Amino acid sequence: MDRYSKITNKNQREIVLLKAYPCVWGKCRFCDYIDDNSRDKEGMLALNREVLSHVTGEFGVLEVINSGSCFELPEETLEDIRNIVREKNIQKLFFEAHWIYRKRLDEMREFFGIQIVYKTGAETFDYDFREHYLNKHADFQDAEELSRYFDSPCLMVGIKGQTKEMIRNDIALLKRYFKLGTINVFTNNTTDVKRDEDLVKWFLEEFQYLEEDPSIEVLYENTDFGVGD
Fold first, then answer.
1. What CA–CA distances, in Å, run from 166 to 157, 163, 169?
2. Model confidence over 68-101: pLDDT tens digits?
3. Domains of the chain
4. What's the pTM?
5. CA angle at 129 for the pair 37 and 35, rounded to the nearest 5°
6. How far is it, in rounded angstroms, from Cα 127 to Cα 124?
7. Angle 75-87/105-112 helices, nearest 10 degrees?
């Protein structure tokens, strides 16, 4: 399991994958990442400190991810991150949080005292598909509402049941309401959600131009940021 990497193309930054307590929701139909969660506090703290020891601060930007939300990281790990931020003169943090935490986002801003870019797993702006099929438990009504809280949504494409029109609409809304975004091409995992190969092929051809868009990062594999397994 790789837990430290550098992103050197778009939005250059260091990235770490840390361990945290179980995801507050943990019932998304498509997600088996939560297998990386833990309740072994001492084990988490030791692992997270080792991973954080690789951070150099060379870009002045650090992204911290875990299999859930940043609010599920141990308090001691958050203190370790804050120490790294100060020691390495990091000016910007990327965190991820579930919609459930939307009213608490300023807590992290106050704790760290620097700019925080909040990502969130929107998956799609199609309410019915997101809530009734993916079971995301993120009941925002539209992209505008999500943009009131979060800076950078993560979308998924290539799932059986999605349509070309849904994907076109999702990307149009992403560009309209957000300065940054991530698009994940779905990869089959241990869940019953399945990849639509024809839809993926269409997406890769139709939206090839996103490779040149500095505001959108497209992940063709789960490990394209250099972390994970």
1. 9, 5, 5
2. 999 999 999 999 999 999 999 999 999 999 999 9
3. 4-219 (3.20.20.70)
4. 0.95
5. 10
6. 7
7. 50
